[in-house]
Amino acid sequence: RKSFSKLPRVNTRRQIPSSLMMDEPTVSLHTQLTYNVVTAGPEMDHVIAENWREQWLANGRPASMVTEDQMEKMINYIMNAREKLGHRSFVALSPTGEVVGSAACQLWCGPIPQPTEKKVGTVWGVFVSPKWRRQGVATQLMESVMGYWRSLGCERGVLLCASEEARRIYERLGFGEGNVMLLDLKQPCDLLTGEMIAGKEPCSLPGDVVISPAAEDMDAQVARHWRDVWIESGVPPSEFVPKMEEHTMEFITAARQRLEYQAFVARDATGAVVGSISCQVWEGPGSNNHTWQRLIKIGVVWGMYVWTSHRRQGIEARLLEQVVARLRAIGCTKGFAYAASSDEATAFKSIGFQPHNAMVVELDYQQRPLHSDRAQSPLSPMDLWRRPRAEATLTADDAILTAEEEAFVASVRSSGAKLALQMSPARLAALRLPPPPELG
């Protein structure tokens, strides 16, 4: 078995073609060191992969946890991301052409099905050689990254920082906590309080509700619930990706084949699916990809939805309980959640999810001062719409009811306003039902 120490080393002192050199180098305010930050082409992909490995070691992580084929897999990942996700790398060069820092960035993609066409950027592999740290190199690299995000039309950026020193740099650039959250899966979790404990009994459910793993025949229902999640968060259907439900089902099919996808559904006594949730592994960039390191394996939680009439009865907690158990069973070390609304963020936090090292920044399309003492929004993740589950509405043309939904509509009508009063305006609109006073 090839040891880490025997892996090929990359000469980061190589001379860079003069065509990459910038005319005016940056001069450090602390020393007389000067450097240029330039765009790196494919010929520098191996440097990005090598520097990621150097940063891994610098953060105190063991070399034995890096896979033998890390370089090959990471370079292939970069090539694919360049083609599909607008990947771009930046390197910082000394006056002699030595690579003294690097960063990789691209469009954020993969953890969840894309609900809208709004763009979000992500960055990974930010590295500065020890001798060049605290000279502003990382800040200049990140300013180049954020400028590139803006050129792609990104409204926000997201990252997972690797150290407290890195966190301070990102905070000065405007990054802060958001609705991207993580859960340590190595610790037992009380799903009712979020406290880490051992031997806790699972929370109870209403007597007529059963939660079970979902088979492929539930994919369409899961996709509809995913759509409902975003409608209730306040997103108008006009902003959804084209054929959103079909797009979601394609995501599920691919995740089932490659990423150990599993959904869970909650059914009432009639067999109606009153709630669902999904999870799978995330093969993201940098240290978020378990195919080139063995220490971190991230499981993603998404699509948690429960009918309004069945909320606050413990169903959400039990769905989350099933997902956490599933992620632990497949060897995940961390859970990753992206909350679509403040209500969903509260649900995730109730079982122990916290922002931890997840950070986000708002780009606002225009260039603004990058050095800021605070984050722009306490919810700014990806919470693309900063509202609790809201009173979004649908037109009749936007909603196509299933046979199951038609039956439910009939039961709502037969009950007069009783059931409708328990439902949100968004759910009523999705079912083409008028507000309660008009029912009869």
From TrEMBL:
Gene3D superfamilies: 3.40.630.30. It holds the Pfam family Acetyltransf_1. SUPFAM superfamilies: Acyl-CoA N-acyltransferases (Nat). Residues 35-198, 209-371 form the N-acetyltransferase domain. One of its GO terms (molecular function) is acyltransferase activity, transferring groups other than amino-acyl groups. InterPro entries: Acyl_CoA_acyltransferase (IPR016181), GNAT_dom (IPR000182). This is N-acetyltransferase domain-containing protein. It comes from Haptolina ericina.
